[in-house]
């Protein structure tokens, strides 16, 4: 079973999360509403953007609470105004937990103020879905 959990202050990462979820037959859950998993998760897709150089605080707390008894592997996706991805921070949080972090993230530009207008666009969403299918092996 796969799951998708994301943090999105402005809606950009929510769009990616919905594309990822549709691609792997899961439902996209905002981190504020996520409930304990009732079955073991093979791949947990984690969507996170960058705010002042870091991931969202609620997403960080959620990740800190995970254990390898419930989640085997995590794949990261997200958007930011620049190039920075959440992958390094997610990997650092999960070091020593026994949860594998997929070594590649899907990352695209997200609109911010006047920058990156219209992003993520349909091409970004298609690529996010393709990434998810590759990771899930479907
Ligand atoms: C308060 C705030 C701080 C941000 N800081 C950064 C940053 O340090 N680096 C960056 O690349 N983008 C930064 N951004 C841009 C967001 O990462 C980008 O707009 C992203 O697509 C937001 O995703 P969301 O709509 O899912 O929240 C910031 C955005 C906000 C609102």
Detailed description of the structure:
With 138 residues, the chain is α/β, with parallel strands linked by helices. The chain has a single domain, classed as 3-Layer(aba) Sandwich (Rossmann fold), CATH 3.40.50.360. The protein is built from four helices and six strands, in the order E-H-E-E-H-E-H-E-E-H. The chain has helices at 12-24, 57-64, 87-94, 122-136; strands at residues 2-6, 28-30, 41-47, 71-80, 100-101, 106-109. Strands 1, 2, 3, 4, 5 and 6 form a six-stranded parallel beta sheet that branches. Helix 1 (12-24) crosses helix 4 (122-136). The radius of gyration is 14 Å and the shape is globular. The two termini are 12 Å apart. Flavin mononucleotide binds at residues 8-13, 49-53, 79-82, 84, 110-112.
- Considering the protein shown, what is the CATH homologous superfamily? Flavodoxin domain
Which ligands appear in the coordinates?
flavin mononucleotide
Tell me roughly what share of residues is in helical segments: 25-40%
Radius of gyration: 14 Å
- Count of domain modules: 1
Essential attributes:
single chain, 138 residues, alpha/beta, 6-stranded parallel sheet, binds flavin mononucleotide
Brief write-up:
With 138 residues, the chain is an alpha/beta fold. It contains 4 helices and 6 strands, in the order E-H-E-E-H-E-H-E-E-H.
Question: Which helices and strands occur, and which strands form pairs?
Answer:
Blueprint: E1 2-6, H1 12-24, E2 28-30, E3 41-47, H2 57-64, E4 71-80, H3 87-94, E5 100-101, E6 106-109, H4 122-136
Parallel strand pairs: 1-2, 1-3, 3-4, 4-5, 4-6
